[in-house]
Amino acid sequence: MGQSLPNVIIIYPDQMRADAMSCAGNKRIKTPNIDRLACEGIRFTHAYTTFPLCCPFRASVMTGKYAHAHGMLANHYPIPLGQEFIAEIMRNAGYQTGYVGKWHLNGGKKNDLVPPGPERLGFEYFVGFSRGHNYMRSIYYRNTDQPYTSQRYEPDYQTDHLIEFMEQCRQDPAGRPFFGMICYGPPHVPMIAPPNWLNLYSPDEVPIRDNTPQDVEAQAKARRFLAKYYGLVANVDHNIGRILDWLDYRKLADNTIVILVSDHGDMAGEHGRYGKKTYYEAAMHVPFLVRYPRRFSG
After folding, report:
1. 71 phi/psi in degrees, rounded to 5
2. Low-confidence ranges of the chain (pLDDT < 50)
3. d(Cα 63, Cα 105) in Å, to the nearest integer?
4. Res 108: pLDDT
5. Which site in 12, 25, 116, 177 is 20 to 30 Å from 109, CA atoms measured?
6. Which conformational region is residue 220 in: left (phi greater than 0), alpha (psi within -120 to 50 degrees), or beta?
7. How far apart are CA 291 and CA 298, in angstroms?
8. How confident is the model at residue 297, as a pLDDT?
9. SS3 for the chain, per residue?
10. Please, are residues 149 and 137 in contact by the beta-carbon 8 Å criterion?
């Protein structure tokens, strides 16, 4: 592509803690591709979600507004239309727009179709579904209202579709840049993955925070959870590597902005709690990395 405007890719794993990266000082987990983003770009060490819940923060990403302004204050409701959305802005600026993965912005039931038109908020290429975390038998839609069921692990096939989108954009006769967003379900529960990822870490080797309750069972439960959680993150990291390798192969890395961000973290046993919906550090602190080689380097 010879365009002057940069391509933009947003990579958005669901419920990823800020410390679930080796570049953040975690000595147990290995995330070489996320580390590469940090080394070649910028890692923001004090990035916090504006709302530790899926839908409100997703709507903030789409609108650039706080939840009280965009109107989505809880999960499973449709985002109010009639606002300005990032994909519409990018499309109007000459970008080809594409979205892959979990949507969670149209109030639908699990595995529902996100209808073409205004409800896709400006995204043209669209491979995804309303919501759901069935990682080994993922139901998704592509171009039609016919549901597909994938037998592959969800982030793996989703990365294929993002690469397909970028390949299509690369062949655009007008040379327009692309704006793509991929929303992985993991490391959000359930702890489901192929065995090579799920069993990558042993609970006995996973450190836990001092604020985890001191009784033996609570600490063992936290270790078991984090070991599997780290395995899901490792697969996300693997797929991030596939995206970065494709950009290198097509010689697009220098003029592509790659952003990694999550909506919130996971308590992972801290204070005896799991999940989000709380204002503790573990739920609020999120990864936020930006790489744009043409403009800056790490």
Report:
1. 95, 5
2. 1-2
3. 12
4. 82
5. 12
6. alpha
7. 8
8. 72
9. CCCCCCEEEEEEEECCCCCCCHHHCCCCCCCHHHHHHHHHCEECCCCECCCCCHHHHHHHHHHCCCHHHHCCCCCCCECCCCCCCHHHHHHHCCCEEEEEEECCCECCCCCCCCCCCHHHCCCCEEEEECCCCCCCCCEEEECCCCEEECCCCHHHHHHHHHHHHHHHHHCCCCCCCEEEEEEEEEECCCCCCCHHHHCCCCHHHCCCCCCCCCCHHHHHHHHHHHHHHHHHHHHHHHHHHHHHHHHHHCCCHHHEEEEEECCCCCCCCHHHCCCCCCCCHHHHECCEEEECCCCCCC
10. yes
Type of residue at 223: R
Task: Kindly report, residue by residue over 212-231, the tens digit of the pLDDT.
Answer: 999 999 999 999 999 999 99
Q: How many residues does the chain have?
A: 298
With the C-alpha atoms ordered 118, 122, 124, 126, is the resulting torsion angle positive or negative?
A: negative
Q: Give the closest residue to 209 by CA, choosing from 289, 265, 288, 287.
A: 265
**Amino acid at site 110:** K
Burial of 191 (0-12, 13-18, 19+ CB in 10 A): middle
Tokens 């999940």 appear where?
A: 275
Query: Which pLDDT score is estimated for 158?
Result: 98
CB 179 within 8 A of CB 87: yes
pLDDT at 28: 95
Cα–Cα distance, 195 to 197 (Å, whole number): 5
- Tell me the whole-structure pTM to 2 decimals: 0.96
CA distance linking residue 46 with residue 27, whole number of Å: 19
List the 288-291 sheet strands across, edge first: 42-43, 288-291, 256-261, 7-14, 178-187, 96-102, 125-129, 139-142, 147-149
